[in-house]
Amino acid sequence: TDIGSQKDRVVSEEEWLQKWEMGNIGFHKEQGHPLLQKYLDVLLNGKSGLRIFFPLCGKAVEMKWLADMGHSVVGVEISEQALKDFFAEHSLPCCEEPVPEISGAKRLQSTSGNISLYCCSIYDLSSSIVGKFDAVWDRGALVAVNPCDRQRYVSLMMTLMEKNSSCLLVTVSYDPNKHKGPPFYVPESEIKSLFG
Ligand code: SAH
């Protein structure tokens, strides 16, 4: 299939913030994702107390779910509203602090400490700021990244992953000439070549 029609599409950060403001967030699901439930064992590989990364996290309910299992969750999201809604909707007290390494960025953290969400662009992060992760849940992240930024996104993700870590990634398959995205159509062959 030809992804030509989506190749040059760009969704600006401003447009994402507007989606949150307008409540135009059809991508958010109140129920935990069935594929995370199905493949949880593959992701965790029998280990406990993992550091799990949620790129482009929105207010994904799976963050609460994994934190309740004793893992420590780190997310990144440009919309502060999304992050505030996340803590409010789960009645989790949180505190916020600036991130000295990133100008304008904030970190919102559950008081209990095991959910830490960065309000900034993912491209501002590096392993020296957030450390490395044992597991990644990528749902609505690679497929939301602008097609021109895919390589940059994946290269960054590789630097944030520990040697023996795994990433569960959800992609979508449809005719890219019928819908402009996001979510963008990312064929399996492209995922293979991006991650190697
Ligand atoms: N993963 C979430 C949200 C998917 S929608 C879920 O499963 O529900 C994609 C999200 O990425 C939006 O909330 C948008 O505000 C955020 N986003 C877009 N570009 C970003 C960037 N460069 N850095 C961080 N977050 C970004």
TrEMBL record:
Molecular functions per Gene Ontology: thiopurine S-methyltransferase activity
Pfam families attached to this UniProt entry: TPMT (PF05724)
Entry keyword Membrane: no
Swiss-Prot/TrEMBL keywords: Cytoplasm, Methyltransferase, S-adenosyl-L-methionine, Transferase
Protein name per Swiss-Prot or TrEMBL: thiopurine S-methyltransferase
Family: Belongs to the class I-like SAM-binding methyltransferase superfamily. TPMT family.
Organism whose genome encodes this protein: Alca torda
Signal peptide range: none
GO cellular-component term (any): cytoplasm
Binding-site residues for S-adenosyl-L-methionine, renumbered to this chain: 16-27, 56, 77, 121-122, 139
Principal subcellular localization: cytoplasm
Record EC number: 2.1.1.67
InterPro entries: SAM-dependent_MTases_sf (IPR029063), Thiopurine_S-MeTrfase (IPR025835), TPMT (IPR008854)
High-level lineage: Eukaryota, Metazoa, Chordata, Craniata, Vertebrata
A Gene Ontology BP annotation from the UniProt entry: methylation
Catalyzed reactions: S-adenosyl-L-methionine + a thiopurine = S-adenosyl-L-homocysteine + a thiopurine S-methylether
Gene behind the chain: Tpmt
Domain of life: Eukaryota
Classification via SUPFAM superfamilies: S-adenosyl-L-methionine-dependent methyltransferases (SSF53335)
Cellular localization per UniProt: Cytoplasm
